[in-house]
Amino acid sequence: MGINPELMTKVIAMLKRTGPEFRESSRQVEAALSRLGVELWTSPALRRVAEQMSTRHPDLQGRLDLILATPDAARDRDGIMWADGSDWQSSTTTGAAAAKAMAAKVRAQAKSGTYDPKTIAELEKHKNDPLFAAAFAKEIPPDELKRLISRMFRTDLPPIGRPDDKDLSAEKKIADLFSTILGTASRAGKLPDKYADELLKDLGDPQSAFAIGKLLGKGRFDHAFMLDVVKRVYDYDVAHPRARAREPEFPLPGQDKIRHAPDVSPMSTVLKALIHHPKVSQDFFTDPKRRPLAYLMRERRWAPESDNLLGAALYEAATKFRDHGMPREQSSGYKAALIASWASHYWAEEKVQRNLPNTRIWAASIHANYITDVHRAYQAPASTEIGVDAAYDPDKSLAGVQPYGAVFNKDELKKVMTWAFKDNDAFMTVAAAHGQYSVEVLDETASELAAEIKAEFAAWHKSHPEATKKQIDAKRQAILEEKMGSGGGAFQFEGAVNSLSETTYAITDAANIAKIEEARKNDEQYAAFKDLAKKIIDLAPGPQGKFVGLLVDQAKDHVYGKFTSKQEDKAKIAAGNAIEDAKIMFRDATAAAMMRHGLFGDESAPTHPHASKQYPKGSAGDFLVNGEIMSKDEMTAPQRRAYVEWLYRTKATNRVFYGANSAVSRDS
Predict the structure, then answer these.
(1) Which class for 438: exposed (0-12), middle (13-18), buried (19 or more C-beta within 10 A)?
(2) Which of 246, 351, 359, 250 minimizes the C-alpha distance to 303?
(3) Which residue stretches of the chain have pLDDT < 50?
(4) pTM listed for this prediction
(5) 507 exposed, middle or buried (CB, 10 Å; 0-12, 13-18, 19+)?
(6) Where are the domains of the chain?
(7) CA neighbor of 473 nearest in space, from 486, 485, 483, 461
(8) Strands 387-389 and 405-407, how do they pair?
């Protein structure tokens, strides 16, 4: 069904106001006509209309609430909000009856310890129905709901005595449904008063904390409700260090490994909820009163793997919503960048790295999404500033207005990345992001340079309308070679090549693969970098103005989708110098961008690959596909020879490629 929320709100207000007035007016008209002896055949109809106007607004309000509370409801361009209402109860009465019956079934099956598929299916059917959810929350209050969860998962037993996860599929499903139903009720504003008080009671008790985590972990809750819960849990966690203390665990007799109990410390109960509520996470992590990041990352010890959940929550808060909205203090993009900057600052500390050993991939993923800011930090003098780059357009090397940027310290970046890159997936994430960003910048800069050359040639051609084809081709080539060798857009292009290659060197240095000896020790990272170096030509620039962070996963999948340990073995055999590989990579990326934008001229130009007499178009050495340079990873031996011959050993090519080639400068 569909509804315009603003219009329906006005209609409901009108019915509330005019319904009683219409009923009273119709009664007075009917009485007056009766005194005059005039029979009014339409009076019953008028009474029915008046009755409808007076009684229909609660139902309309209910329908409006249902649609607004639906998780996947979406507006169309006409402002209509659409939602699937097939599973909604028709009224508060039927919702209450269904909830009462379902609560009885849940209680009965909890006693037996088994849950049948029919019960699960019925809960599934009603999980997005606010009328059912509100009634269910009243039928089974928080204290009883927590006891049901504890009984389901046998949290009263020590870890060794609890059922295996594989035997708890039905229980997990029901716990998830309980959470979803509570979320539905909260979004409709229908949770009982002081529900949060009851839910968080006995937070220091492990069984209660475990149940709270389950009840908050899956549903989508009202923002204000969830933020209030998270703040209360945080305050309790800070004030009760004993509640978060961990006793040392040892393997039991006959066990090789410890079977860890779930983390039931107070703050751990809301980590999954923070992951599912990134805007709540933003408001919580940027709370000016609590400033929780220092405590959560530096001071608080986490049980095994709980730090991974904290890392995921930081990632969602820092990357889910990127924008350049105003006022900036209310902008999700501003808060996201602020979180990224501060998290990076803390991750640079050895204490935090020891405390959060399972967050390497999250640190890398955040920096990959802010790769433009990583690049900018490496090009700037060292700074101790932390915060947000709130300039109108933080990255002017890309088209369009980029989101708020994070301010990073390049000395701290080295520390964070050196630590994070011990996880090869983390290294591949940042390397792929930088590769994609480099392709974007080189492509846009090459496009601007090509437009500059085209404009100059068009001006010449306009003033020489009688020029022959030979003269036209010669002049076009002369302008191309002159522009590529002097000033203007060529300098800008060479500057982009130089700065991007310098950032690549910094990344390889952080991964400890910049030198041959280091590459041999860190062969997995070196193999991953070699893969990027070979495939960077194949990375396609995204649409102009599209935020680079949105292309990171795509780039990573393209470069490393088939990465295996075989590449690792090859790297051990032929460990090289990543600095030299980086130079080749940027020469390849630069040549690819120039070819895309015609900066080597057309096929008749001496600077174009097809001008080669040894490897002409269509020969075994032809390395162009649809006018673009193919991936080096896919080139045959003759194609690689032809490519190297053309790019590095042809005088004509050197006339347009020399400046960009020279910009890739760094001693090995």
Answers:
(1) buried
(2) 246
(3) 41, 246-255, 563-575, 668
(4) 0.82
(5) buried
(6) 2-82, 292-420, 421-599
(7) 461
(8) antiparallel
